[in-house]
Amino acid sequence: MDEFQGESSRPLPLSRRSFVRTSLLTTAAVAIANSPLLGPLLKTAQAATPDLLHDTFNGLLAFIVPGPDTYSQAQGATSSTAGDVEANVAEVLIGTLDLTVPFLPQFSVTVAAILNNLAQFVNPSANNPFSSPFANLKYAEKVGVLQIMDSTDALKSLAGVLPLLLAALCYSDAGAFDPVTRNLTGTPVGWTVSNYSGVSDGRDEFQGYFQQKVMPTQIANEEKRHA
Predict the structure, then answer these.
(1) Residue 166 and residue 171: Cα distance in Å, rounded?
(2) pLDDT digit string (tens) for 89-103?
(3) What is the pTM for the complete model shown?
(4) Any idea what the Cα angle at residue 38 is, between residues 33 and 43, rounded to 5°?
(5) 74, 135 Cβ separation under 8 angstroms
(6) I need a labelling partner for 28 at 20 to 30 A (CA). Which of 34, 120, 146, 209 fits?
(7) Can you tell me the distance from the alpha carbon of 132 to that of 93, in angstroms, rounded to the nearest whole number?
(8) C-alpha–C-alpha distance, residues 71 and 137, integer Å
(9) What is the DSSP string of the chain?
(10) What is Dmax (Cα atoms) for the chain?
(11) Closest residue by Cα to residue 93 from 118, 60, 46, 117
């Protein structure tokens, strides 16, 4: 099963991908913790509500992989196929941020505060329909927030790792995994988007060669290659 599942169930051996993700998030958190930005951010974070937190990250999820959901519609960039919001990974994202950076309590709240504070700078009038200023931004304005982060020393590491983390979550099976039964509760959105047919003991390779069903052009190309 996917490595993200272990963060909501039981510890698993640290994979190479988990190590890279943890290292990148830790680097981003250290940069923020050593910055004068941390004090004001923590004051803003203290006022965060669960609705604000979820709206913020759903707005970010829709930005990375748009879908037909209300957050994608609000930003003006949608897709007819299910996206990050439908992948149901907001809680997994929050847990990942908090558990990966234990030395900065509730790191997810700090990240949400960064996104919302910059959103108010980019567009102070973005007040509806969500409680999160970032979720209320248009797609191009969200790009502006990431550009500001990327040009700020204390935030550039976070700007680099967030899109990677969210995309990985969308294409994982974390949102459809039950940590109690350790089974999938449905077809993960990432499987549908990527046309993945699911777990298999094996798959046919060299399609067209199976049972000697070889096209004449393939025979000719093979003869030329070995001539």
Answers:
(1) 9
(2) 888 888 888 887 777
(3) 0.71
(4) 140
(5) yes
(6) 120
(7) 17
(8) 10
(9) --GGGGGGSS-----HHHHHHHHHHHHHHHHHHTSTTHHHHHHHHHT--HHHHHHHHHHHHHHHS--SSHHHHHHT---SS--TTTTT-HHHHHHHHHHH-TTSSSHHHHHHHHHHHHHHHH-TT---SSS-TTTTS-HHHHHHHHHHHHTSTTTHHHHHHHHHHHHHHHTSSGGGEETTTTEESS--HHHHHTT-----S----STTTGGG---HHHHHHHHHHH-
(10) 74
(11) 60
**Confidence check: pLDDT of 54 > 50:** yes
CA–CA distances in Å: residue 81 to residues 91, 134, 142, 174, 191: 21, 23, 21, 18, 12
pLDDT digits (tens, 9 = 90+) for 147-164: 998 988 888 888 888 888
Nearest Cα neighbor of 64 from 117, 126, 157, 143 is 143
> Residues with Cβ < 8 Å from 192, sequence gap 6 or more?
81, 82
pLDDT of 13: 45
- Which pLDDT score, from 0 to 100, does residue 57 have? 94
